[in-house]
Write a structure and sequence with these properties.
With 431 residues, this protein is of the alpha+beta class. The protein is 36% helix and 21% strand. It is built from 11 helices and 15 strands. The strands form 4 sheets. The protein has a 6-stranded mixed beta sheet with strand order 7-15-14-10-8-9, with helices on both faces. Strands 4-5-6-1-13 form a 5-stranded mixed beta sheet. Strands 2-3 form a two-stranded antiparallel sheet. The longest helix is centred in the middle third of the chain and has 24 residues.
Amino acid sequence: MLSITGQYLARYRQLGTGSGAEALLPVTGAQRRFVLVRSLDPAGRPDLVPMFFAFPHGTVDVERLTAAGNRLAARHPVLRARPVVVRGTPVLRPEQPDVPVTRVPCAPRETAAAALRRVLGDWAPQGSPLRMFLAQDEAHTGDETLAVVLDHSACDGRSLARIVEELGAAYAGSTDAEGPSPAETAAELAAYREAVLLQLDAEDRATSPSAMAYWGERLRAVRDQAPAPRPERPTAGTLPSGSAELQLPSSAGSVPFPDLLDACRAAARVLYGPGHAVPLGYPWGGRPSGAAPVLGCFLNTVVFPAVTGQSPAAEVTADAWWDDLDRADTPFDAVVHAARAAGSAWTGRLDGLLTVDDARQRPPLRLGGVAGREIQVDGRAVRGPFAVSVTQGSALQLRMVWDRAVLDDHTAEHAFAALADSVRASSRTAT
């Protein structure tokens, strides 16, 4: 019997005949996950990846930035492709580059951050997967904030540094600079298709009977712990999400990944109580062996069952995590299927997310010789109930955000304190 990925590959290859079929691109398991997640969301919210940069007033030339964005999208198929369903098969259809750069006017007494939250909340799924927004406070004093925003199905964390670097390089050219030649465009299109097909082949191999049996047993006890977010908007004056953060000294940068999972387990215990198997997700993986380093969405979401009873010894979590990594290529939708086949009532919603980034790997966005300062815009709608980000650099930055439609601030802040205490203890042990 064909796996989920095998069935998808068979259907995609059947599209190889017919008008325009040569332009249809396959989707990875990670992209299929975002389709699943959106279908589970009562409001049908897309997953967005925004980056915010503060520039001195007058730095950003909108016409020049639009030309730069279009040249970037002309080079990378995933930045100008639209998701479509052809004969029941989800695919991407590349189109002409059309990257909008929108000046966002602030309403009376509205800040630039609030204006950007508003436009991201109104993001229409149809349209370019790469869009940019420029906002400044009503008084037109101080910095402008540039939001470079991508649909998550078009990128993963490993694409962001390259997008920032290439966007800055494209901005350095003139507005009428030529984009890639037809031959270069065709080569990039072929390289992207080949990379995704290699990824799908790897995912198909990773959906073996033994892998499915492993994930079924591993996740048998997992259940959704938090209710689904309510679809209505928050009341006026209330931000959709809360946040907390803490910066630890550079010596804490040696915290092993399993210890970060245990820290998330400590937070989940506060949020959901003891005695549960809470589904936590984290991105893992990379481009398949032999594939060109194309932009796209390739990182799989691996599920960690955080049992909120008494925390096990660190080596127990580490051993289980290493076993998970041996099967980390099994695509998310297949893992959900395996868990449900084993008796779990898990729907596929994640109750927590963990991401780890190395700030030293991402260059600043430079426009016209000016380096933008990357900033946070708090209070945005988040894919929750809670998400933890760990940024490694000159110090260790812990940050947690939560969906206020699901979790109250008081409980979430106590959960963050438990997470921080766990990381501090791990850091002391490591040093």
